[in-house]
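Escalation from tier 1.

The customer reports that the assembly of two entities below gives different structure tokens on two consecutive runs. Tier 1 could not reproduce it. I'm attaching the input and our single run for tier 2 to review.
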Amino acid sequence: MTRSWWGWGNVEDAVGGAELGALLDRVRVLMPGDLTDHEPPGVDSLGLPAPRVTAPASLAALCSAEPADRAAHAHGKAFRDVVRNLQGDLRHVPDLVARPRDERDVTDLLDWCSREGIAVIPFGGGSSVVGGVEPRCTGHPAVVTMDLERMDRVLEVDGTSRAARIQAGVFGPHLEDQLRPHGLTLRHFPQSFEFSTLGGWLATRAGGHYATLHTHIDDLVESMRVVTPSGVSASRRLPGSGAGPSPDRLFLGSEGTLGVITEAWMRLQQRPRWRARASVRFGDYTVAVAATRAIAQSGLNPANCRLLDAAEALINAGVSVGGGVLVLGFESADHPVHRSLERALELCRDHGGEPSPDAGGEPRDGEPGGGEPGGEEGGGPDVRTWRSSFLRMPYQRDALARHSVIAETFETACTWDGFETLHRAVTEAARQAMREVAGTGVVTCRFTHVYPDGPAPYFGVYAPGRWGDLVAQWDHIKAAVSEAIETSGGTITHHHAVGRDHRPWYDRQRPAPFAAALSAAKTALDPAGVLNPGVLLPAP
Amino acid sequence: MTRSWWGWGNVEDAVGGAELGALLDRVRVLMPGDLTDHEPPGVDSLGLPAPRVTAPASLAALCSAEPADRAAHAHGKAFRDVVRNLQGDLRHVPDLVARPRDERDVTDLLDWCSREGIAVIPFGGGSSVVGGVEPRCTGHPAVVTMDLERMDRVLEVDGTSRAARIQAGVFGPHLEDQLRPHGLTLRHFPQSFEFSTLGGWLATRAGGHYATLHTHIDDLVESMRVVTPSGVSASRRLPGSGAGPSPDRLFLGSEGTLGVITEAWMRLQQRPRWRARASVRFGDYTVAVAATRAIAQSGLNPANCRLLDAAEALINAGVSVGGGVLVLGFESADHPVHRSLERALELCRDHGGEPSPDAGGEPRDGEPGGGEPGGEEGGGPDVRTWRSSFLRMPYQRDALARHSVIAETFETACTWDGFETLHRAVTEAARQAMREVAGTGVVTCRFTHVYPDGPAPYFGVYAPGRWGDLVAQWDHIKAAVSEAIETSGGTITHHHAVGRDHRPWYDRQRPAPFAAALSAAKTALDPAGVLNPGVLLPAP
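Tier 1 run:
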């Protein structure tokens, strides 16, 4: 397999053939436009500027100045990143890509960069969709991207406490491969699972497999090691503590601005043996939301609880329904869960929901395939179609970008009492912005996670674009919906992180005294101000 | 009812009569010694020094210089606090007690104190057992204790999202009284429930009702308002967010060093309708621990899961058993939970546990009394005896202190793989220290909370003391067990907080770079260094 330098995942997995034909057929129906294919440029044609810095001899072996390497580390994987790559627009490229082998290397690299004032961008899988790894750092003589991919091992497993000490650079599948012989799993499956790392999940407070309870990676952390320019911060392995403000919670979500996460003790699970799943159709969206809220407040704690609105159900699950489809899943390694599903379906029926014919939810002992991302086998055709679509989405997004179709997502969270207002404001803002820049477009919504006090809505936007204008078109839409989220009381991000792109709205959302505290903490830990400048805080 | 100035709770609820007789009879059996009763001194006899400061006219109405007020705010409610009160040893007394009526008053008081360099001690119920409210602040011209008791209202209830905006100074019972008409409850019941406040719980990361999942108050917080000398930090109401490091998590556990928490939006629950409880006896403690671990890792998530060791069972539940007693409880507002109890009992039986005869765990719909602290009605005689004892413990501790008996608790948390070592080290350290200072003594252990990756053990110490030496005796024991906890990898506190008394071990446990970050954050928020000096961080 070959990683794509310009787009998602592996070159060999790109959308093509019949899948591409079907995709474009659907696009033609929804939003006719110019569907010319624009092939990605070769790396050699990009004309990257020469690196502005050379690593000292002691670090030279860790550093690459290869154009392909530098190009592949210039952008994240947002729509606007992929489009800029396709157009050969790489304005900010790291001068070097450094690949430390261990914590000593991380420390030495940070020492060198701090001394020279060189910006350092910690890099995991590079799947940021918020400009989190893009070296827009104009105030520094050079930029080094620190790619942790060589630090990819599970170092210790404690089967008694069900925890493991894991290096930050490990990618999802390789992590699970190393845990599988122990009968354990981290069970953290963000959509980016295959191409993102533990360190990236921790630095960005990634959202994972569980729709309820353990929604963010935060809750799976027992302790962390973080190399800062001011020393190594190593917290103690604890199942819980009340000793002052949590050290880990300062580094969770710090997005590479306070230090480089090198390893963590993570809480693991037994692989699930019992499962029950179903999908439920609703004729009315408001009622579907009320049913989902009832389940979120029931204490049943489903592993999966995704409400797809009618547009999402149609486009990504091929289901035509008036209100929406609720995808439900329960799982356990210890006990049958079909009664939990039955109770959830009862709550749905109370709200007029219609469970799928095959959604009986009989327990299945030892069903295979339980460790896989999006692994919601069974549960009716709606579920299966949606899941397969879920895993192909990033690849399809790239194919659409090549054909000048705007296709991107954004997400938030809000309290239940504010959801209707936020949903309307965001949907209207998206439609209005799409009308302005593209004449038309479709906006979809699903819940990725739900809490007793509110949902995490995830929106999709699809609009016909114009080659050459795609980034400007998208930026206009993104600004409009971000404004709507911020003024409706939502968070600018539930699990995509802040990066550089969310800064204007994050700055308004964040309490000013906390900004001052965070800034002071950064100065204490990174006195030279070299760590990921411009992310979370203004560049120095 | 009259609050005791020197001891726990209300004067009228103090141990006396038959309860006192029975208590002393038990003490005589276990540890013979001089049981003379030492009555508390009158406040007038304490000879408090005159206040060193006068409030400006604009704030004078908020401030009290009454000796009884100042004496009642001089200490927390630890054993060493009560003993010092009984001995009339009040070395550090606040000069004034200020009672702000609203956020404006809090700001004005902070402004005045910052200007004059006067230390400010935020004060909720004053139930600290770690010196968290004791004005040992020698580097300041005066000390003002800010008692939030006037800010005690539930300001808004959002029934849809099940959340409420609540002022920080409200005590547990008054908080629940205000939520009851809405059919909702915070369901946070620390042992101090009756005499502690929401703001205190938040500032100290209090541990509450739930033995699993939502163990600390942290998880029940939707947003917070904190008045700092640098402005008001108001986070947004969100069910979840990934926008940078969590602002609330910086203030949770800040113990009054970063600002004064004035209100919070808290997540609420429906009052439980379904309950199932049991107690299980084990012949061997190691096996009892293994059974408890199996339940903690099962995903059954009991609301109550307290393993009492043999000494705890004997002393506080009147049960004679070789290994221990596991007290289990499940509850739900939505669905029956007897099957969860059945599965937990099955796990216990697999480990040789014997459920109590009446522990059938039939569901009871609408059983009354569900909102009460320690409200585990039914569940067998072991459970009932232990619960009644639980609520009387602080009063009994005071009675014992008056009779020169050392009686105190301390707590920690650790991973399961390290528990046996920690338990042995702590128990041996306690016994050795008791031998050294008291000749003999008893140490007990129970789990207050359990996690998939480890328990939170809570220890009790009972030893014969000598009037006049009690504080020194206890301090010797406390230092020994704290040393054992720290070197065994535990946390110096799971939910009692750090305060001033845990500082030496907290300082070793806390990662140095995090200490630097926290210190920088404090300087940014409290530039004059007046907020609770000496707590968490060295006094300036």
